[in-house]
Design goal:
The chain is an alpha/beta fold and about 270 residues long. The chain has two domains: about 100 residues, ATPase, nucleotide binding domain (Nucleotidyltransferase, domain 5, 2-Layer Sandwich); about 160 residues, ATPase, nucleotide binding domain (Nucleotidyltransferase, domain 5), CATH 3.30.420. The chain contains nine helices and twelve strands. It has a five-stranded mixed sheet, with helices on both faces. Strands 8-7-6-11-12 form a five-stranded mixed sheet, sandwiched between helices. The protein is globular. Bound molecules: adenosine-5'-triphosphate and magnesium ion. Adenosine-5'-triphosphate binds next to helix 4.
C-alpha cells in the first residue's frame, strides 16, 4: 500500500489508492496516535509525509518514511486535482486556507510561495471560541450560516449614510467595526458573532489573493484547505469577494487533500 500523508497543524490527511480509486482519511492532530496505529496496521506500506507535524508522526511509524516539502506536495496535488477535473488552469494563484493561510503563484511547473496570513481556519476556531465558547467546527459553521453580520461589521453604506458611496455599499468598511454602543441591552447572538468571524477570515484571504492575482496578471484563484470543508458561509464570502476583485474562484473537490495527494504521487 502506498500512502501519502499531510500532517498539518490541525488535521492529519491521508491519501491512498484502493481498488484503483483514490481514497482519503483524516484524523484530528489531537489523535496523532490513532493516525500512527492506522498506518502501522498495514502489512506492507510505502509512505511519504509532508506538513509541519510530519516529523512527529514519522517518529511513531514502524516503516521507513520519505518526507517531502509541504509547498511542493500541495502544488503537485492541486495540479493532479485540476487535471482530473478537466481544469484548464495552468497559471493561477493557489491559496491554502489551513490552520494558517499560505499563498502561492503557480505558473505551469513552477511554484513560488508569495507569503501568507495568520488569518485562516485556526482563526475561525480560536475567535469563535473566544466570542461564543463553542469549540466544535461543525457547530460553529452551522450556526454561522444563520447569522447576520450587519450589526457587527461596518459596511461602506453605513459610513456613506444617505450619500452615494464611491465603492459598492455592501462591502465591509470595518470588520467588527459596527458593534453596538456601550450600555445597549440588545445582545448579539452567537450566530451573528460567528457569521462575522467567518466574514473576517473569508474577506481577508480573498482580498490578499486578489491582490496577488492582479500583481501576477492571472485571473484564477484556486482555494483549498480544510477550512472550506462543509463550510458554505466561508465559501460564499470568499467567492463574492474574489469576484468583486475581478478574479475567478475555484474550489476543487478534495482540495483539502492536495498535500497528501502530492506526497502519494511522489512514491
Ligand atoms: P496547516 O497547513 O496550517 O499546518 P492543517 O493542514 O492542519 O494546517 P487544514 O486541515 O487544511 O489545516 O485546515 C484546518 C482548518 O479546517 C481548521 O482550522 C478548521 O477551521 C477547519 N476544519 C475542518 N474540519 C475540521 C474538523 N473536523 N476539526 C477541526 N477543524 C476543522
Ligand atoms: Mg496544511
Amino acid at each position: 500500500m502506498n500512502i501519502g500523508i499531510d500532517a498539518g497543524g490541525t488535521l492529519v490527511k491521508a491519501a491512498y489508492m484502493h481498488n484503483h480509486s483514490l481514497k482519503f482519511k483524516r484524523f484530528p492532530i489531537s489523535r496523532l496516535g490513532d493516525a500512527a496505529s492506522w498506518i502501522n496496521g498495514f502489512e506492507k506500506a510505502k509512505i511519504c509525509m509532508t506538513g509541519g507535524k510530519a516529523a512527529l508522526l514519522k517518529s511513531m511509524i514502524n516503516y521507513k518514511v520519505a518526507e517531502m516539502v509541504e509547498f511542493e506536495a500541495t502544488c503537485d496535488g492541486v495540479r493532479y486535482l485540476l487535471a482530473k477535473n478537466d481544469g484548464s488552469e495552468k497559471s493561477y494563484i493557489l491559496t491554502n486556507v489551513g490552520t494558517g493561510t499560505s499563498i502561492h503563484h503557480i505558473d505551469h511547473n513552477k511554484q513560488q510561495r508569495l507569503g501568507g496570513t495568520g488569518v485562516g481556519g485556526g482563526t475561525i476556531m480560536g475567535l469563535s471560541q473566544l466570542l461564543t465558547g463553542l469549540t466544535d467546527y461543525e457547530a460553529i459553521v452551522s450556526l454561522a450560516a444563520k447569522g447576520v453580520r450587519d450589526r457587527i461589521d461596518l459596511k461602506v453604506s453605513h459610513i456613506y449614510e444617505g450619500a452615494e458611496p464611491p465603492l459598492p455599499g455592501d462591502i465591509t468598511a470595518s470588520n467588527f467595526g459596527n458593534i453596538l454602543p456601550q450600555g445597549s441591552t440588545d445582545p448579539l447572538t452567537k450566530e451573528d458573532r460567528l457569521a462575522s468571524v467567518i466574514g473576517l477570515v473569508g474577506e481577508t484571504v480573498a482580498v490578499v489573493s486578489v491582490l496577488a492575482a492582479g500583481h501576477y496578471g492571472v485571473s484564477s484563484i484556486i482555494y483549498i484547505g480544510s477550512s472550506f470543508v462543509r463550510n458554505d458561509p466561508l465559501k460564499e464570502v470568499v467567492e463574492s469577494y474574489t469576484k468583486l476583485g475581478g478574479a475567478s474562484p475555484v474550489f476543487p473537490e478534495h482540495g483539502e487533500y492536495s498535500g497528501a495527494i502530492g506526497a502519494l504521487l511522489s512514491l
